[in-house]
What does this fold into?
Amino acid sequence: CIGAGVALAAACDLRLAANDARFAITPAKLGMIYSLADTARVVALAGPEMTRDLLFTGRMIDAAHAHAIGLIGAIHPPAVLDAAVAEKAAQIAANSAWSHAHGKRIMRRIAAGARDDDDQTRGWFADATEGADFREGLAAFAERRKPVF
It folds into this structure.
């Protein structure tokens, strides 16, 4: 995952990697720069100090280091990576798409500096309590079954 590959990974909601993966941010080796948006995403994951280190040196780090600094969320042996990704995808797909969409909206607001609810986020919460997914989730809980969203 080198150069634009890290930018692409940083734009993802979740990042799983093989434990033999390697990562580098190399634009400085080409006389280029990362865009502000790409840099901001890496800073949000790895922090400003580590982002500067990776940008300025262009050095390669291994998956364990990338995991330790927050650049990736999980590492797995290559032989089980596909299964781990499939399991994570199944866990996500089993839950409410409405909840995912609104959770992402809230996460974007937090990333932009929001710390308190406003009329829109309070409205989303109210909509959730009246929505079909919440009714299904409550019914499934009461009936001790998995919800079907």
